[in-house]
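Hi everyone,

Forwarding the result from last night's run.
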Amino acid sequence: MQANPELQAFLKTCQGQVENALDHWLPAATITPERLHAAMRYSTLGGGKRVRPVLVYATGKALGADPRQLDGAACAVELIHAYSLVHDDLPAMDDDDLRRGQPTCHKQYDEATAILVGDALQTLAFQVLCKDDTLTRNAKTRLEMIETLATASGSRGMAGGQALDLAAEGQTLNLAELENLHIHKTGALIRASVRLGTLATGHHDSELGQKLDHYAKCIGLAFQVRDDILDIEGSTETLGKTQGKDRAQFKSTYPALLGLQGAREAAEQLLAEALESLSEMDQSADPLRWIANYIVGRSY
Protein backbone atom coordinates (compact mmCIF):
# COMPACT_ATOMS: atom_id res chain seq x y z
CA MET A 1 0.00 0.00 0.00
CA GLN A 2 1.35 3.42 -0.97
CA ALA A 3 0.85 6.29 1.44
CA ASN A 4 -1.77 8.77 0.25
CA PRO A 5 -0.40 12.08 -1.10
CA GLU A 6 -1.46 14.05 1.98
CA LEU A 7 0.30 11.58 4.26
CA GLN A 8 3.37 11.58 2.02
CA ALA A 9 3.57 15.37 2.32
CA PHE A 10 3.06 15.22 6.10
CA LEU A 11 5.68 12.46 6.47
CA LYS A 12 8.19 14.41 4.40
CA THR A 13 7.72 17.52 6.54
CA CYS A 14 7.98 15.64 9.83
CA GLN A 15 10.91 13.51 8.70
CA GLY A 16 12.82 16.58 7.60
CA GLN A 17 12.05 18.36 10.86
CA VAL A 18 13.19 15.51 13.11
CA GLU A 19 16.24 14.89 10.89
CA ASN A 20 17.33 18.48 11.49
CA ALA A 21 16.76 18.10 15.23
CA LEU A 22 18.74 14.86 15.33
CA ASP A 23 21.58 16.41 13.35
CA HIS A 24 21.63 19.29 15.83
CA TRP A 25 21.81 17.10 18.93
CA LEU A 26 24.11 14.33 17.69
CA PRO A 27 27.78 15.21 18.25
CA ALA A 28 29.76 15.86 15.08
CA ALA A 29 31.91 13.00 13.81
CA THR A 30 34.94 15.27 14.19
CA ILE A 31 34.51 15.53 17.98
CA THR A 32 36.41 13.08 20.19
CA PRO A 33 35.74 10.15 20.38
CA GLU A 34 35.38 10.42 16.62
CA ARG A 35 34.63 6.75 15.88
CA LEU A 36 31.83 6.58 18.43
CA HIS A 37 30.26 9.82 17.23
CA ALA A 38 30.51 8.73 13.59
CA ALA A 39 28.81 5.44 14.46
CA MET A 40 26.04 7.25 16.35
CA ARG A 41 25.32 9.40 13.32
CA TYR A 42 25.54 6.39 10.97
CA SER A 43 22.93 4.54 13.03
CA THR A 44 20.51 7.44 13.40
CA LEU A 45 20.56 9.80 10.42
CA GLY A 46 19.39 9.43 6.84
CA GLY A 47 16.96 6.55 7.02
CA GLY A 48 13.95 4.91 8.59
CA LYS A 49 10.23 5.58 8.52
CA ARG A 50 10.40 7.84 11.62
CA VAL A 51 6.96 6.56 12.68
CA ARG A 52 7.48 7.46 16.34
CA PRO A 53 8.51 11.10 15.90
CA VAL A 54 5.83 11.49 13.22
CA LEU A 55 3.30 10.35 15.83
CA VAL A 56 4.58 13.03 18.21
CA TYR A 57 4.04 15.69 15.54
CA ALA A 58 0.67 14.26 14.45
CA THR A 59 -0.62 14.18 18.03
CA GLY A 60 0.55 17.73 18.57
CA LYS A 61 -1.16 18.84 15.37
CA ALA A 62 -4.42 17.20 16.45
CA LEU A 63 -4.23 19.15 19.71
CA GLY A 64 -3.21 22.50 18.24
CA ALA A 65 0.49 22.58 19.15
CA ASP A 66 3.19 24.57 17.39
CA PRO A 67 5.28 21.88 15.60
CA ARG A 68 8.50 23.61 16.66
CA GLN A 69 7.60 22.91 20.30
CA LEU A 70 7.60 19.18 19.56
CA ASP A 71 11.12 18.85 18.12
CA GLY A 72 12.72 17.84 21.42
CA ALA A 73 10.18 15.13 22.16
CA ALA A 74 10.27 13.82 18.59
CA CYS A 75 14.06 13.74 18.63
CA ALA A 76 14.22 11.99 22.01
CA VAL A 77 11.85 9.17 21.08
CA GLU A 78 13.70 8.54 17.80
CA LEU A 79 17.04 8.38 19.64
CA ILE A 80 15.60 5.68 21.90
CA HIS A 81 14.28 3.80 18.88
CA ALA A 82 17.65 4.05 17.09
CA TYR A 83 19.48 2.76 20.17
CA SER A 84 17.08 -0.18 20.41
CA LEU A 85 17.71 -1.16 16.78
CA VAL A 86 21.48 -1.07 17.24
CA HIS A 87 21.26 -3.35 20.27
CA ASP A 88 18.58 -5.60 18.75
CA ASP A 89 20.85 -6.30 15.78
CA LEU A 90 23.79 -7.47 17.93
CA PRO A 91 24.86 -11.14 17.80
CA ALA A 92 23.63 -11.68 21.36
CA MET A 93 20.16 -10.47 20.36
CA ASP A 94 18.68 -10.90 16.86
CA ASP A 95 22.10 -11.23 15.16
CA ASP A 96 21.24 -9.31 12.00
CA ASP A 97 23.59 -8.00 9.32
CA LEU A 98 21.25 -5.57 7.56
CA ARG A 99 19.23 -2.59 8.75
CA ARG A 100 17.54 0.04 6.57
CA GLY A 101 19.25 -1.46 3.54
CA GLN A 102 22.78 -1.03 4.88
CA PRO A 103 25.13 -2.98 7.19
CA THR A 104 24.10 -2.94 10.82
CA CYS A 105 26.19 -0.87 13.21
CA HIS A 106 28.25 -3.77 14.54
CA LYS A 107 29.00 -4.87 10.97
CA GLN A 108 29.93 -1.40 9.74
CA TYR A 109 32.03 -0.68 12.85
CA ASP A 110 32.43 -3.43 15.46
CA GLU A 111 30.47 -5.05 18.25
CA ALA A 112 31.96 -3.05 21.12
CA THR A 113 31.34 0.22 19.30
CA ALA A 114 27.73 -0.80 18.63
CA ILE A 115 27.15 -1.42 22.34
CA LEU A 116 28.55 2.02 23.15
CA VAL A 117 26.45 3.60 20.39
CA GLY A 118 23.28 2.23 21.98
CA ASP A 119 24.35 3.41 25.41
CA ALA A 120 25.18 6.90 24.15
CA LEU A 121 22.01 7.31 22.08
CA GLN A 122 19.87 6.30 25.04
CA THR A 123 21.43 8.83 27.39
CA LEU A 124 21.34 11.54 24.72
CA ALA A 125 17.56 11.12 24.47
CA PHE A 126 17.13 12.14 28.09
CA GLN A 127 19.63 14.98 27.74
CA VAL A 128 17.45 16.35 24.94
CA LEU A 129 14.32 16.22 27.09
CA CYS A 130 16.19 17.95 29.90
CA LYS A 131 17.75 20.74 27.87
CA ASP A 132 15.78 21.37 24.67
CA ASP A 133 14.42 24.90 24.83
CA THR A 134 11.54 24.19 22.42
CA LEU A 135 9.77 22.31 25.24
CA THR A 136 8.15 25.40 26.63
CA ARG A 137 5.79 23.84 29.17
CA ASN A 138 6.59 23.88 32.89
CA ALA A 139 9.24 21.84 34.70
CA LYS A 140 6.64 19.38 36.03
CA THR A 141 5.56 18.54 32.48
CA ARG A 142 9.17 18.16 31.38
CA LEU A 143 9.70 15.65 34.21
CA GLU A 144 6.56 13.76 33.16
CA MET A 145 7.98 13.54 29.63
CA ILE A 146 11.23 12.12 30.99
CA GLU A 147 9.33 9.61 33.13
CA THR A 148 7.12 8.61 30.19
CA LEU A 149 10.08 7.88 27.94
CA ALA A 150 12.07 6.15 30.70
CA THR A 151 9.20 3.82 31.60
CA ALA A 152 8.51 3.01 27.95
CA SER A 153 12.18 2.22 27.36
CA GLY A 154 12.95 0.14 30.44
CA SER A 155 12.07 -3.21 31.96
CA ARG A 156 8.36 -2.36 32.07
CA GLY A 157 8.46 -1.35 28.42
CA MET A 158 10.70 -1.97 25.43
CA ALA A 159 13.65 -3.64 27.20
CA GLY A 160 11.28 -5.89 29.10
CA GLY A 161 9.57 -6.82 25.86
CA GLN A 162 12.91 -7.73 24.32
CA ALA A 163 13.65 -9.93 27.35
CA LEU A 164 10.29 -11.66 26.90
CA ASP A 165 11.05 -12.11 23.19
CA LEU A 166 14.42 -13.72 23.86
CA ALA A 167 12.91 -16.02 26.51
CA ALA A 168 10.17 -17.09 24.08
CA GLU A 169 12.48 -18.29 21.27
CA GLY A 170 11.70 -21.90 20.46
CA GLN A 171 8.48 -21.79 22.50
CA THR A 172 4.88 -21.49 21.43
CA LEU A 173 3.13 -18.57 23.06
CA ASN A 174 -0.62 -18.22 23.27
CA LEU A 175 -2.28 -15.07 21.92
CA ALA A 176 -2.44 -13.30 25.29
CA GLU A 177 1.26 -13.95 25.91
CA LEU A 178 2.19 -12.75 22.43
CA GLU A 179 0.15 -9.57 22.85
CA ASN A 180 1.77 -8.91 26.23
CA LEU A 181 5.21 -9.31 24.67
CA HIS A 182 4.50 -6.84 21.89
CA ILE A 183 2.62 -4.34 24.06
CA HIS A 184 6.01 -4.00 25.76
CA LYS A 185 8.53 -4.52 22.95
CA THR A 186 6.90 -2.51 20.15
CA GLY A 187 3.82 -0.87 21.63
CA ALA A 188 5.35 0.89 24.63
CA LEU A 189 7.44 3.32 22.60
CA ILE A 190 4.60 4.01 20.17
CA ARG A 191 2.28 4.80 23.10
CA ALA A 192 5.00 6.99 24.59
CA SER A 193 5.25 8.92 21.33
CA VAL A 194 1.55 9.82 21.46
CA ARG A 195 1.70 10.59 25.19
CA LEU A 196 4.66 12.93 24.63
CA GLY A 197 2.47 14.79 22.14
CA THR A 198 -0.37 15.05 24.65
CA LEU A 199 2.00 16.14 27.42
CA ALA A 200 3.37 18.89 25.21
CA THR A 201 -0.15 20.29 24.85
CA GLY A 202 -1.49 19.69 28.36
CA HIS A 203 -4.12 17.10 27.34
CA HIS A 204 -2.55 13.99 28.90
CA ASP A 205 -4.98 13.70 31.83
CA SER A 206 -8.12 14.49 29.83
CA GLU A 207 -10.68 12.11 28.37
CA LEU A 208 -9.26 13.00 24.97
CA GLY A 209 -5.80 12.01 26.18
CA GLN A 210 -7.17 8.61 27.25
CA LYS A 211 -8.71 8.07 23.83
CA LEU A 212 -5.44 8.98 22.15
CA ASP A 213 -3.66 6.50 24.41
CA HIS A 214 -6.07 3.76 23.31
CA TYR A 215 -5.46 4.74 19.70
CA ALA A 216 -1.72 4.37 20.31
CA LYS A 217 -2.13 0.98 22.01
CA CYS A 218 -4.09 -0.30 19.01
CA ILE A 219 -1.69 0.94 16.35
CA GLY A 220 1.29 -0.32 18.38
CA LEU A 221 -0.10 -3.86 18.24
CA ALA A 222 -1.17 -3.42 14.61
CA PHE A 223 2.37 -2.35 13.73
CA GLN A 224 3.73 -5.64 15.08
CA VAL A 225 1.02 -7.76 13.43
CA ARG A 226 1.91 -6.16 10.10
CA ASP A 227 5.63 -6.70 10.77
CA ASP A 228 4.94 -10.40 11.35
CA ILE A 229 3.01 -10.61 8.07
CA LEU A 230 5.79 -8.83 6.17
CA ASP A 231 8.36 -11.26 7.59
CA ILE A 232 6.54 -13.88 5.50
CA GLU A 233 5.34 -11.89 2.50
CA GLY A 234 8.03 -9.23 2.14
CA SER A 235 11.48 -9.35 0.62
CA THR A 236 14.85 -8.40 2.06
CA GLU A 237 15.23 -5.70 -0.60
CA THR A 238 11.86 -4.10 0.20
CA LEU A 239 12.09 -4.44 3.97
CA GLY A 240 15.67 -3.23 4.25
CA LYS A 241 16.35 -5.99 6.76
CA THR A 242 16.64 -9.76 6.57
CA GLN A 243 13.34 -11.37 5.60
CA GLY A 244 12.27 -14.59 7.32
CA LYS A 245 14.21 -14.04 10.55
CA ASP A 246 11.22 -14.82 12.78
CA ARG A 247 10.67 -18.23 11.23
CA ALA A 248 14.40 -18.98 11.24
CA GLN A 249 14.55 -18.23 14.97
CA PHE A 250 11.33 -20.17 15.69
CA LYS A 251 9.57 -17.14 17.15
CA SER A 252 5.88 -17.06 17.93
CA THR A 253 4.14 -14.65 15.56
CA TYR A 254 0.58 -13.60 14.77
CA PRO A 255 0.50 -15.54 11.47
CA ALA A 256 1.85 -18.62 13.26
CA LEU A 257 -0.98 -18.44 15.79
CA LEU A 258 -3.80 -17.09 13.63
CA GLY A 259 -2.75 -17.94 10.06
CA LEU A 260 -2.02 -15.23 7.51
CA GLN A 261 -5.66 -14.37 6.94
CA GLY A 262 -6.37 -14.35 10.66
CA ALA A 263 -3.41 -12.02 11.21
CA ARG A 264 -4.69 -9.66 8.50
CA GLU A 265 -8.13 -9.65 10.16
CA ALA A 266 -6.55 -8.93 13.54
CA ALA A 267 -4.70 -5.95 12.07
CA GLU A 268 -7.90 -4.63 10.51
CA GLN A 269 -9.77 -4.97 13.81
CA LEU A 270 -7.04 -3.03 15.60
CA LEU A 271 -7.21 -0.38 12.89
CA ALA A 272 -10.97 -0.06 13.36
CA GLU A 273 -10.54 0.37 17.12
CA ALA A 274 -7.82 2.98 16.60
CA LEU A 275 -9.97 5.00 14.22
CA GLU A 276 -12.98 4.77 16.55
CA SER A 277 -10.85 6.34 19.28
CA LEU A 278 -10.50 9.39 17.03
CA SER A 279 -14.16 9.54 16.02
CA GLU A 280 -14.93 12.70 18.01
CA MET A 281 -11.90 14.60 16.72
CA ASP A 282 -12.04 16.92 13.71
CA GLN A 283 -9.87 16.98 10.59
CA SER A 284 -6.86 18.17 12.57
CA ALA A 285 -6.53 14.51 13.64
CA ASP A 286 -6.43 13.30 10.02
CA PRO A 287 -2.66 12.67 10.12
CA LEU A 288 -3.26 10.22 12.97
CA ARG A 289 -5.91 8.49 10.84
CA TRP A 290 -3.56 8.38 7.83
CA ILE A 291 -0.76 6.91 9.94
CA ALA A 292 -3.03 4.18 11.30
CA ASN A 293 -4.08 3.17 7.80
CA TYR A 294 -0.49 3.32 6.60
CA ILE A 295 0.74 1.06 9.42
CA VAL A 296 -1.75 -1.67 8.55
CA GLY A 297 -1.28 -1.40 4.77
CA ARG A 298 2.48 -0.78 4.50
CA SER A 299 4.80 -3.03 2.48
CA TYR A 300 7.97 -2.30 4.46
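The domain at 5-297 is CATH 1.10.600.10 (Farnesyl Diphosphate Synthase).

Cheers,
N.
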